[in-house]
Specification:
Strand order of the largest sheet: 6-7-8-3-9-10-12-11
Order of helices and strands: EEEHEEHEHHHHHEHEHEEHHEEHH
Family: Belongs to the ABC transporter superfamily.
Shape: globular
Number of domains: 2
Subcellular location: Cell membrane
Distance between the termini: 13 Å
Number of helices: 13
Structural class: alpha/beta
Strand content: 15-25%
Protein name: Oligopeptide transport protein (ABC superfamily, ATP-binding protein) (Modular protein)
Helix content: 25-40%
CATH superfamily of the largest domain: P-loop containing nucleotide triphosphate hydrolases
Radius of gyration: 24 Å
CATH topology of the largest domain: Rossmann fold
Pfam family, one: ABC_tran
CATH class of the largest domain: Alpha Beta
Membrane topology: Peripheral membrane protein
């Protein structure tokens, strides 16, 4: 099995064997050019209330074999960015900027020319598999259609064989029988596996995963992430992982792009973003994520307030009304992305103050981190030493809306603390 970013020896054979990796880019494209390059991407939607500027100046370059995580709250422009790349936005959308695949511009191309690229050059895993699968066709027929669109010489028998192999590859039990099932006969997790199988069927160079684990429980989420890693290994593809959950990208991404109010506010490696963030918004997102490796059982530190309206946005930093480090200068102009380290940028004029927190959100979001100790735990010394001094404990009885934590529960580790090593390409 090849590792992500390497190329395999063969393409898909006529016998239906799934190859590992790609031998070349699509014909007519420059294999030496950047895989996917997005430059100053802007998307606007006309509404009765005004022009909604949903995506504002997104820039990123995706290299072969790389996984880029795009994170942010709902409404930050993550999904609209991916739909703009795929050319799937409605006709009313006003898209400007540049999206290049292997050196060729995708913006402005017609649906026929984009159909040549979709699925073969760039494929997409949509957020809701129930709406992205056709309910009146068997899942096998939908996989076979994807294969035969890009390979006209493929026989129906060979396409069916490959469809079964793809379902086996993504972990569908009894794939030979389930290939004749309809989408409604699968669970949510199984439907998502089918969508992943369709996305990887033609061994694309780029897979865009738009919140593929949002509607799934935690156990199934972990299984789907394993399937995504299998897809990367089998196809040699690069991936754009879009999610609002920082924990999802911790073990799979190489770089992370944090979006807020339609624009990037921090870009860096996974280690930079998780352990040394420089943007208060990124720090707040980390503070809202449970940490099993924390020295004390602290409460989460939520970000108060809501994202701004994207219609006629006021000047200044869009995060300023919610930011605990807000000062008058923040309202003067929206800050650009400043270089704060090697390959690390942040859109904030107070990055030095954020740096002092070293990834500990409670250092900055102190007003939202009160009641930091759960019932039955020893209060840390810095909280317990009041006027009388001495160590105390919280009340033994938990509040009515809490459940007493189980005793002797083994430490399962943290999503963040268990992040893979820093070696590029290591997605074990």
């Amino acid at each position: 099995m090849s590792t992500p970013g390497t190329t395999g020896a063969t393409a898909v054979s006529s016998t239906g064997t799934i190859s590992r990796g790609r031998t070349q880019s699509l014909p007519g494209f420059d294999a030496a050019a950047p895989l996917l390059q997005v430059t100053d991407l802007n998307v606007r939607f006309p509404t009765d209330d005004g022009l909604v500027h949903a995506v504002r100046g997104v820039d990123y370059t995706l290299r072969s074999g790389e996984v880029l995580g795009i994170v942010g709250e709902s409404g930050s422009g993550k999904s609209v960015t991916s739909l703009a790349v795929m050319g799937l936005l409605p006709g009313s959308a006003r898209v400007t900027g540049s999206v290049k695949y292997r050196g060729q511009e995708l913006l402005g191309q017609g649906d026929r020319s984009m159909s040549r690229i979709r699925g073969k050059g760039v494929s997409m895993i949509f957020q809701d598999p129930m709406t992205s699968l056709d309910p009146v066709y068997k899942v096998g027929a939908q996989i076979e259609e994807t294969l035969r669109i890009h390979d006209k010489s493929l026989s129906s028998k060979a396409a069916e064989t490959r469809a079964v192999e793809l379902l086996e590859l993504v972990g569908i039990p009894n794939a030979g029988d389930r290939v004749n099932s309809y989408p409604h006969e699968f669970s949510g997790g199984m439907r998502q596996r089918v969508v992943i199988a369709i996305a990887m069927a033609n061994q694309p160079e780029v897979i865009i995963a738009d919140e593929p684990t949002t509607a799934l429980d935690v156990t199934v989420q972990a299984q789907i992430l394993e399937v995504l890693q299998t897809a990367l290994q089998e196809t040699g593809a690069a991936m754009v992982m879009i999610t609002h959950d920082l924990g999802v990208v911790a073990g799979i991404a190489d770089r992370v792009l944090v979006m807020y109010a339609g624009r990037p506010v921090e870009i860096g490696s996974v280690e930079d973003i998780y352990y040394e963030p420089r943007m208060p918004y990124t720090l707040g997102l980390l503070g809202s994520l449970p940490r099993l490796d924390a020295p004390t059982r602290e409460r989460l530190t939520p970000i108060l307030g809501s994202p701004p309206s994207l219609v006629n946005m006021p000047p200044g930093c869009p995060f300023a009304p919610r930011c605990p480090l807000h000062i008058a200068e923040c309202d003067a102009a929206e800050p650009p992305l400043f270089q704060v380290g090697a390959g690390h940028e942040a859109a904030c004029i107070r990055t030095e103050q954020v740096e002092r927190a070293h990834g500990h959100a409670a250092e900055v979001f102190s007003e939202t981190a009160t009641d930091a100790v759960l019932a039955g735990d020893a209060i840390p010394t810095d909280l317990a030493l009041g006027e009388a001094g001495g160590e105390t404990t919280a009340g033994d009885a938990p509040p009515p809306d809490q459940t007493e934590p189980a005793a002797d529960v083994p430490d399962t580790g943290s999503v963040i603390s268990s992040h893979r090593g820093t070696t590029d390409g290591d997605r074990a």
